[in-house]
Amino acid sequence: MRGHNEGTVFWHKKRRLWCACITARSSGKVIRKYRYAKTQKLALEQLRALQNELEAGKLNDPNRVLLRDYLAWWLENIAEPNYRYASWRYYTGLADNHVAPAIGACRISQLKAHHVDELLQSVKNTKSNRSGSPRLRQQIYDFLKKVLATAVRRETLGRNVCDSVDRPKVPKSEISTLTEAQAAALLKTARADRFFALYALDLNSGLRWGELAGLRWKDIDARGGMVSLQRALITARSVDHDGVSKERPAVAETKSGRGRHVAVPEFVIRALHEHKEKMA
DSSP assignment, residue 222? Predict the structure, then answer.
């Protein structure tokens, strides 16, 4: 039996990392602190560090909370229950691969604009052009601002330091699209393909793949020449009987929850009707 404030180390199935966890009290409330590591040995070291911080009174004082600890709490208690699995997974990647390694050792109460600048600069200096892309820096900035906004709302912080840093700009790039002749040639070539109706609908609706995959026959209004978009195919997570977390496809409402209607040409409606008859 573990003693009071001893903490524990366990395998975190969702993040697929070893987790050190300890319970503390702050302002009369019970809080849990998490540290993650790739090996059990490193997690035990993290647990000892947490125990030392608790003994020194650091974990009980909101002003001494480290950013990496607050990130772990935010992902566990804010992101996972309120966002889709794909978003939670992406936020976890931003936290583990970028924010925590760069400035995770800073106390959130002592974060300054230059810390955010250092974080964004560390991404910019990444050897891989893809990893250091302007869009990635923008996403990291937005993620950190979202996390710190929670701390402000909960009165852990008085202000959001990201407000003092300009949001990274993404250079506008020219969108490459098919010409009318190229689209016609593609459809002509694909006419005999079993997925011709899908190609025709995709080219003439602008729907994303997940939106296309979530369509049902009742969403097609043949008379009005409209497609009703009410749901989409997403990546979800499930846990099997052995407790192993696995990704699986699932259907969910659109992010807005309102849906929308898209007009499509008559020949697309005919292609969909022919495809339905073949399936019967």
Answer: T
- What size, in residues, is the chain? 280
User: Residue 128 pLDDT more than 70?
Assistant: no
* Spatial separation of the C-alpha atoms in residues 245 and 140, rounded to whole Å: 26
Q: Is the pTM of this model over 0.85?
A: no
Q: What is the pLDDT of residue 242?
A: 64
For residue 162, give the DSSP letter. Answer: G
Q: Kindly state the DSSP code that residue 259 receives in the 8-state scheme.
A: -
- What backbone torsions phi and psi does residue 253 show, to the nearest 5 degrees? -65, 160
Cα dihedral 101, 90, 158, 160 in deg (nearest 10): 90
User: Residue 270 pLDDT more than 60?
Assistant: yes
- For the residues 230-253, what does the mean pLDDT come to? 75
* pLDDT for 3: 45
Tokens of 194: 């079993």
- pLDDT value of position 68: 92
Q: For residue 109, what are the CA distances in angstroms to 18, 50, 54, 147, 274?
A: 27, 19, 18, 13, 63
Helix residue ranges, H only, 28-108: 40-55, 67-74, 80-82, 85-94, 100-103
Amino acid at 146: K
Find all residues with CB under 8 Å of 144, minimum gap 6, and list them.
Answer: 99, 116, 119, 162
